[in-house]
Amino acid sequence: MTGGAAVTTLQAAPRPEAPAALLDEGRIGLRATARHTGALVRRNLLQIRQNPESMTDALLMPIVLTLLFVYVFGGVIGRGGSRAQYTAFLVPGLMVILGMTIAMAVGTGVNDDFRSGVMDRFRTMPIARSSILLAKVVVETGRMLVAITVLLIVAALLGFDFSGRWPGIAAAIGLTTLFGTSLIWIFMLLGLTLRTAQAIQGLSVIVLTPLQFASSIFVSPTTMPDWLAAFTRINPLTHMADAARGLALGEGPVAGPVLWTVVWSVGLTALTAPLAVTKFRRKTTS
């Protein structure tokens, strides 16, 4: 009897349940999601502190790009042959390049997280899955701001005149960050969709290289052939570069490029962010 009772008790014992977040993420409210995101942001920042090499791109890329284009190409393609004028023309455009560079690294990072087993550990944690992606967006946006800060320091050393331009420069930084955040969601979606980091990098280079050089980031579209200038005018990178240049330097139209940049940023985020979160949830439950 005792043995039978023991067997009955063992058979009736409930099976352990998975964490609530993994069973139904809809039960997690916005406040809990924000708390989870904050905890993951702190975790990611601690990882950067333990591995400072992960900030190499944000710290060195602004220096390399600025020196390369100013001293190698500035005297040739600078407006009127003036290196100082070309530096002023280039710096707002380089803000866009830095946003793209940081965003591209996010895609390969997400892909590597799945391959290295990091996401397997997150599966067992009672947290909102969306908080993992939101934390990455917050941290990478911070890295983007660090890169832009380094760029402005280098620009000041090269003679960029900041006097009386701080409000416009601050607005240009804010707009660039908004646009860069929308690019982060695109590359996270690529990182969740493509199988390897090499595929992400290859596709990114193929798509972004024409967009970068067929824009107003490095030269004015007025110097291009008519067919290329027509494409440049509808290029979202041109809108962003013109908006940053207009805000920071007070040159050229501002309202139109700013409006188009906001439209592109909101549209890309509204399209890719839900897709990225949905793709992430499927991958973490499969």
Automatic annotation (TrEMBL):
PANTHER family: NODULATION PROTEIN J
Membrane topology type: Multi-pass membrane protein
Protein name: Transport permease protein
PROSITE patterns cross-referenced by the UniProt entry: ABC_TM2 (PS51012)
Keywords noted in UniProt: Antibiotic resistance, Cell membrane, Membrane, Transmembrane, Transmembrane helix, Transport
Organism: Streptomyces siderophoricus
Domain ABC transmembrane type-2 span(s) in chain numbering: 53-283
Protein family: Belongs to the ABC-2 integral membrane protein family.
